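Archive entry. Fields below.
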Amino acid sequence: MSEVKTEATRDAYGKTLVELGKENPKIVVLDADLAASTKTADFRKAFPERFFDMGVAEQDMIGTAAGLAASGKIVFASTFAVFGSGRAWDQIRISAAYTRLNVKIVVTHGGITTGEDGASHQANEDIAIMRAIPNLTVIVPADAYETAKVIRAAAKFNGPMYIRLSRIKSPLVYKDESFAYQIGKGITLRQGKDVTIIACGIMVAKALEAAEELSKQKINCRVVDLHTIKPLDKELIVRCAKETGAIVTVEEHSILGGLGGAVAEVIVENCPVPMARVGIKDMFGESGKPEELLVKYGLTAKDIAAAVGSVLKRKK
Amino acid sequence: MPSKEKVLELKNIAQKLRQHIIEMICQAASGHPGGSLSAADIVAVLYFHQLKHNPKDPKWVDRDRFVMSKGHAAPVLYAALAESGYFPLKYLTTLRQIGSSLQGHIDMLSLPGIEMSTGSLGQGLSAANGMALAGRLDNKDYQVYCLLGDGECQEGQVWEAAMTSAHYKLDKITAIIDHNKYQIDGSVEKIKNLKPFGDKWKSFGWNVISCDGHDVKAVCEALEEGKNYKGKPSVIIADTIKGKGVVFMEEKPLDYHGKAPTETEKEVALKALCQIILDKDENK
Ligand SMILES: Cc1ncc(C[n+]2csc(CCOP(=O)(O)OP(=O)(O)O)c2C)c(N)n1
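PREDICTED_STRUCTURE:
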């Protein structure tokens, strides 16, 4: 097997932010004492006058971001996913989303692959609580290339966003940045007619791996990178359900309320087909190496293949 | 400093705002009279004396900003905006009705002249800081005013924001506390004491100013002092009375935090508020 190239989505964020900073003087960056980890430190170094560290005060950070945005700035505000979603939820709701302001909340350390820091630092519920907020666009890019595209799109997009990135180096799904990217439009990465695997974030690579394995058993999986959880690409989901007759969702997040929940809502109302959700069961994580945790919490290509098997059985 | 005539005018405007507050809340049959009335003099001074603003151009880039952090006192802000000419007075009576632009708590997208949506207490000062930081980045000279409740200061975010203003030396920030000493469940002192209140702000790195929040001349002076103070943000702790101007509310502030007066009570309240204040009444 050829060597798989990897890169952390947060690294791509840091680099892209510096490029954007050069192009657009309106861009301002905030962080809550995690600049080295979230990679906003790159921007701090390049544009110290447009970087504000808000200290360990996530609620204040979101409110300050809203005030800057209300005065014409395009604000990127970063911290870990747990704190950037849960700790400041009400501030995101009222100061950023109700107001439709240009606040881009870009969080890193999403999901269980945050690893050794353990449950307190593993955001497994953030997609669910963020997508419940009206006006808020929610995106989970699949790899570093897509992250660069998303961050560029975010700077042009008018309105509040929540963008979830990862800590770990993860496989590159795309070969470069030359593909077409549009907020709200899922990307079909592999054609297939037996089942559609809909994934987001670092699980897209695992979905492709599972599809490859299953092809050896003559099971033809379609694989979709559904990077935008909100607004959801309903049309694509319904089309996949109709054409392949079964759906498996895969996310590094609780099976409650995240990508799986969002897709299930669409399927149930529009085109009920057998469906399975691969994700973290309704439980907290623990310390461990990211790869060990993915195995223990059922987030491997093998788990995806098993879920595909289960929906195919129900399909007949 | 304001002339004698200006002071008299501001007093009468404050009374006018109070009339609107009572009429609006009665029409809506719900709302927050106590904390709207206590802030009436402060808001009158801001909109009719202190703020650099243009109701014909609400988004004017050089305007001063006013963030009403205690979003439940929306009626006093709506009354001031309408009296300033941001929108016709006739809309005031649509407060809290379905389809109205006058939402129960402040919504910046539904009316011109509103800088920030509020209603969840504790959030306004952070937004004000953001506006002040943007002003500094853009080399603007505008001042950012933020009105908070005293009960609201029990929110942790207020103190996060207070640290931010001081850390970044945002002397373009003037926070004003409507210090009416009551919240919903009781007196602020009894529910969760803020004393020593001024010392708290001082220790957070603020320039602290105190004034009688119903003496419009004193409010003018305090705002001017805050604006001119350099190197630190200023906070004005404005001593106020919850329900000010309506005797039966002043006597029972806890009964009128979030309750509309009855029809009969309205008549009594308006009778007192419709008295024009003359020169000879200067000393109250
Ligand atoms: C975060 C939040 N918690 C609770 C409330 C409900 N609430 C509305 S007004 C109020 C009391 C506020 O007291 P104070 O700030 O002193 O206001 P004032 O007396 O000036 O009206 C409360 C608890 C709210 N609006 N926001």
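CURATOR_NOTE: The pocket of thiamine diphosphate is lined by residues B 32, 34-35, 38, 70, 72, 119-122, 149-152, 178, 180, 182-184, 242 (CB under 6 Å).
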